[in-house]
Amino acid sequence: MQAKSQRGFRKYVGPLAAALGFLSAFIFFQFAYPYHLIKREQANLFVYDGDYIAETYRGMGSLVRFVTDFLEQFFHLPVAGPLIVALLITGIGIVMYRILRHFLGLWPSLGIAALVFVWAFLRETGNIYTTRYTVVVLGYLSLILAALQFKKLWLKAVAAVLFLAFGVWALGSPYHKYYGMLWNTPTPGYERMIGLDAEIARENWDKVLELSKKDLYTVEASFCYNLAHAMKGDLGSTMMNHSQGKPYDLLPPVSIDRTAFSDCLAAEAWYQLGNITVAEQGAIVALQSSPDHTGARYIKRLAEVNLISGEDAAAQKYLNLLSHTLFYRKWARSRMPGRQDGSVRAALAAARAKLPVTDFVHQSENPRNVLLGLLEANPSNTVARNYLLCYDMLRYDLDSFMKDYAAYPAKGRLYNEAIVIWLSQNERMNEQELTRHGIDRATIDRLGRFYQNPNAFRDSYWFYYLKALQAQAQ
């Protein structure tokens, strides 16, 4: 009876191990690492067009590139992406186990297969070409397993040679430097960073702020936090609730001196501000740095900037490409020149209203001039207004701040705090000046408490300015 029970357990231990591995992988990518897959989808493009497919997927490794691009188009879907990845990783473990059972016993085979599963799982937490390599590994292992099904040794040898020859053509090299490192580990901080980037692309500002609650103390994280609050219109009250870098980090340029990831983020802010020239540069940089120089997100942005600038022919090129995709075809077809409905035309008109009246050079060393040009074109551009005032404050240039505030006033606790500092420096702290600048009694009372305990007001501009004075005095 005991022997029978043991045989029953041995019979199901393999399927149970596979089920446990599958659930672990699915739960991890669904709940702990979701943006990791979304980022891959953004850099992917699968076009349902015969000519495009024939031109793109040819030569060695064409089959694995076709399969991977097809699968990755689903990676932005909450359940589908993690499900696909979990199935691929689990498939590697299962096939490896079945290969080993031809040579080893149950437990050695299960142990080695588990290690291979863990290796594949950790590799999948990398960032470049990892899904493609997962498919490559699964493909080669499947070919080896297929060859082992023949009973005669010479048939196994012939099948192995033929199958592996087919694998070289269909799957390409068993390993390539573009597939990344042989070993990876999850990086929660980076997962949150690409989450911020993904939600900015979706213009989901509340989600950006939710992901920003825990300060990552990086330039990119501060940038995302500031952009979300600028879009919500309260940057003038909230900026100091988060760590801030150098003034130029508030609104960085798109530059070859920066990473493609940073350039892509910077382009998002310039797009929202109305500088579509820089937004287009960022999209092109991101497109060039993506694994296969494609990416639905970046092609979509190129279509948008060309529509806004009135370059319909250029926009049509990108829209035609997106119109043959599974998930972007509806968006693309609704924006085809001559087929736009009222809501699309209104959105384009609102974006065009932000464009500068005259062309100017994007000066990386002085974004203030760019912001002033945008405000000259559209004084109601509240995003540009808040960025301009905050940029002056981060530079400690309160004379420019007061000049810009007079021309483009905005509401915000931090702005009032900057005004108080300027009035104090210029010996104009009197009731008449305070009233003229809209400084209420609550702000003055808060200033008194700040003098008593500055560390209790780390979210104030006074604290930021005080730390700069202390650093200068050292």
Structural features, described:
The chain is built from 26 helices and no strands. The N and C termini lie far apart (about 85 Å). The longest helix is centred in the N-terminal third of the chain and has 31 residues, at about 1-30. About 70% of the residues lie in helices and about 0% in strands. The protein has helices spanning about 1-30, 35-40, 50-55, 60-70, 80-100, 105-125, 130-145, 155-170, 190-200, 205-210, 220-230, 235-240, 245-250, 260-275, 275-290, 295-310, 310-320, 330-335, 340-350, 365-375, 380-395, 400-405, 415-425, 430-435, 440-450, 460-474. α5 (about 80-100) runs antiparallel to α6 and α9 (about 190-200) runs antiparallel to α10.
Provide a quick synopsis of the model.
The chain is mainly alpha-helical and 474 residues long.
Could you state the order of secondary-structure elements as H and E?
Answer: HHHHHHHHHHHHHHHHHHHHHHHHHH
H/I helix tally? 26
Low-confidence runs = none
What's the N-to-C terminus distance? 83 Å
Shape: elongated
The overall strand count is 0
Any descriptors?
474 residues, mainly alpha, Serine Threonine Protein Phosphatase 5, Tetratricopeptide repeat, 3 domains, 26 helices, elongated
Write the layout of secondary structure elements.
Elements: H1 2-32, H2 34-42, H3 50-56, H4 62-72, H5 80-100, H6 106-123, H7 130-147, H8 153-171, H9 188-201, H10 205-211, H11 219-232, H12 235-238, H13 247-250, H14 260-273, H15 276-289, H16 296-308, H17 312-322, H18 329-334, H19 342-352, H20 367-377, H21 382-394, H22 398-407, H23 413-425, H24 431-436, H25 441-452, H26 461-473
